[in-house]
Specification:
The chain has 241 residues and is mainly alpha-helical. It has 12 helices and 2 strands. Strand 1 and strand 2 form a beta hairpin.
Length: 241
């Protein structure tokens, strides 16, 4: 029993660490890009990925989220996957439809008349797929700009080349681990009863790389955080021209 509790606590610690570091990476990116563009920081957007924050329906509107098309698809999935909805229906929406909605940070509910309605899920664990989509659902990583795009944005903002290169290097490491996670998922999905030794070796190497995801995200977030003063300075200088 002690061993089972220890394993479960270790799993929860790893998950909590990933969520906190993912928030840090998202927040550092948002703060740096907003500062570089001379835009104010929206405190609700800054707290969007905070795993401890609870946001109101009004605050949720400040966050990136599913489009109207996705909301409509979620409702259609609930309508077509189960029995027809009647005013006195009390059954829960079908599981597959619930999962589809959850992947977009949404919830399916029934109105007093029995109609299926789609609403924003306010809980912290639902905001992460809402903001980062399949990148979070599949790989437990925030959706960040690729290295070249982020570097181009900071170059255009007048950042010193050394700062841009440091950010590019840290971002490239995040890009690489995301590619590794996608490749690992591809190998695990392959239905092969006997593993080729080369494939097994590749899978083991990918696992070692993906196991470092939290550390790589933390290094990325730390790099942006450390260079935020330089971003502010460049933004002020550009505004004074």
């Amino acid at each position: 029993m002690r061993r089972a509790h220890a394993i479960e606590n270790a799993r929860l610690l790893r998950q909590s660490s990933r969520e906190i570091v993912a928030w840090w990476a998202d927040l550092a990116t948002y703060a740096a890009l907003s500062t570089a563009a001379g835009q104010p920081i929206n405190p609700v957007r800054a707290a969007g990925a905070d795993p401890s924050a609870h946001l109101t329906d009004e605050e949720l509107r400040h966050l990136p989220g599913p489009s109207d098309d996705v909301r409509a698809l979620a409702r259609l999935a609930a309508l077509f996957a189960g029995p027809s909805v009647s005013p006195d229906a009390t059954a829960d929406p079908p599981v597959d439809a619930v999962e589809f909605a959850a992947r977009a940070g949404l919830m399916l509910q029934r109105s007093p008349s029995g109609d299926v309605i789609v609403v924003d899920d306010p809980f912290p664990e639902a905001r992460l797929p809402r903001m980062w989509g399949d990148t979070w659902v599949n790989y437990q990583m925030p959706a960040l700009l690729p290295a070249d795009e982020l570097a181009a944005a900071f170059t255009a903002a007048g950042m010193p080349p050394t700062v841009v290169e440091a950010i590019r290097t840290a971002t490239a490491a995040v890009d690489d681990v995301l590619v590794a996670a996608a490749r690992l998922a591809e190998l695990e999905d392959a239905d092969a009863p006997v593993r080729d030794p080369a494939v097994a070796a590749e899978e083991e190497a990918l696992w070692e790389h993906v196991e470092r995801t939290t550390d790589i995200l933390a290094a990325y977030a730390r790099t942006l955080t450390d260079h935020l003063p330089a971003v502010r300075t460049a933004a002020r200088q550009r505004a004074q021209r």
